[in-house]
Amino acid sequence: MGWILVASAAVILFLQNYPLYIRSVPTENELKFHYMVHTSLDVVDEKISAMGKALVDQRELYLGLLYPTEDYKVYGYVTNSKVKFVMVVDSSNTALRDNEIRSMFRKLHNSYTDVMCNPFYNPGDRIQSRAFDGMVTSMMIQVC
Amino acid sequence: MRTLGAGRLLGTGARRMADAVLFEFLHTEMVAELWAQDPDPGPGGQKVSLSVLEGMGFRVGQALGERLPRETLAFREELDVLKFLCKDVWAAVFQKQMDSLRTNHQGTYVLQDNSFPLLIRMASGLQYLEEAPKFLAFTCGLLRGTLSTLGIKSLVTASVAALPACKFQVVIQRS
């Protein structure tokens, strides 16, 4: 249950409510995002338990917009292995559509799966993969 | 034209067979390598080799647990995860599904495979019964690793009454 947060912001990846990966642009805003992200974790948990009760057959991994603040929009995603991804995007970035956010989360998920399959990675450690960093960088360049 | 047709026919079937065989050979070598150091290690040494194999299986299972599940949230309850092991994981690794899954509904599951691919080439019946545990340790770890990634802590053991049938017992560890 790790968390990953991405924003224009930041990308943070969480496992059991401690961070596996944090990346923000610009980097000095990291502390601000920590607070925002901890709040969003509660929302993620709410959404997951709400989905659990729903009788819907197909439960999505993409959780959608968790909550909007006046400056930022926070999106969430959860995997079957209970890893939570949180993405924080600047509100002024109105060009970003829902399906683009979905595809970014999918890319994050695929890269995280690759990290898990890396024999030099111990599950539960902070992610230090340069390949993962590179993927996140290219994603943030797209967003900012 | 004929060669093309034959190639296409052999294509996917042969590839799948090749994948399975590669893993079987590798697995056999892993077991042989661990026992080659000391062919008669005694009970203490045996335990170490078995736990090494189990540990390898565990790490592989962890990765598998991340890679295999589909694009939707598939597991509402524990039983769903066990069914996933029996169907999807077994099919991905052994090209067949588990033959039966039983539970006491109190956290113990027994998964039965009547012709376990890693035992099937060895013998049929009671010959090599003593050696069988060596060939089950990795798979026990695999099951435990996949369960671990999917959020379930467990203890997995295997037993063989007669090759190639075997049972895997999964006991959920609740803290």
UniProtKB/TrEMBL annotation, chain A:
For this UniProt record, give its keywords in alphabetical order, as a comma-separated list.
ER-Golgi transport, Transport
> Known CDD domains for this protein?
TRAPPC2L
Query: Is ATP-binding among this UniProt entry's keywords?
Result: no
- Where can this protein be found? Cytoplasm, Perinuclear region
| InterPro entries attached to this UniProt entry | Longin-like_dom_sf, Sedlin, TRAPPC2L
Q: Name one Pfam family in it.
A: Sedlin_N
Which SUPFAM superfamilies does this one have? SNARE-like
- Record-stated family: Belongs to the TRAPP small subunits family. Sedlin subfamily.
Designated name of the protein: Trafficking protein particle complex subunit 2-like protein
Give the species this sequence originates from: Balaenoptera acutorostrata
TrEMBL record, chain B:
What keywords would UniProt list here?
A: Endoplasmic reticulum, ER-Golgi transport, Golgi apparatus, Phosphoprotein, Transport
Tell me where in or outside the cell this protein is found: Endoplasmic reticulum; Golgi apparatus, cis-Golgi network
Would you kindly state one Gene Ontology biological process term found in this protein's UniProt entry? endoplasmic reticulum to Golgi vesicle-mediated transport
- SUPFAM superfamilies of this UniProt entry? Ligand-binding domain in the NO signalling and Golgi transport
Q: List the GO cellular component terms.
A: cis-Golgi network; endoplasmic reticulum; trans-Golgi network; TRAPP complex
Concerning InterPro entries, the annotation shows: NO_sig/Golgi_transp_ligand-bd, TRAPP_component, TRAPPC6/Trs33
List the CDD domains hit by this protein, alphabetically.
TRAPPC6A_Trs33 (cd14944)
Q: Name one Pfam family in it.
A: TRAPP
Q: Which residues cross the membrane?
A: none
Question: Would you identify the family this protein belongs to, as annotated?
Answer: Belongs to the TRAPP small subunits family. BET3 subfamily.
Quaternary organization: Part of the multisubunit transport protein particle (TRAPP) complex. Heterodimer with TRAPPC3. The heterodimer TRAPPC3-TRAPPC6A interacts with TRAPPC2L. Interacts with TRAPPC2L.
The protein's job, in short, is: May play a role in vesicular transport during the biogenesis of melanosomes.
Listed name of the protein:
Trafficking protein particle complex subunit 6A
What lineage does UniProt assign to this protein's organism?
Eukaryota, Metazoa, Chordata, Craniata, Vertebrata
**Gene encoding the protein:** TRAPPC6A
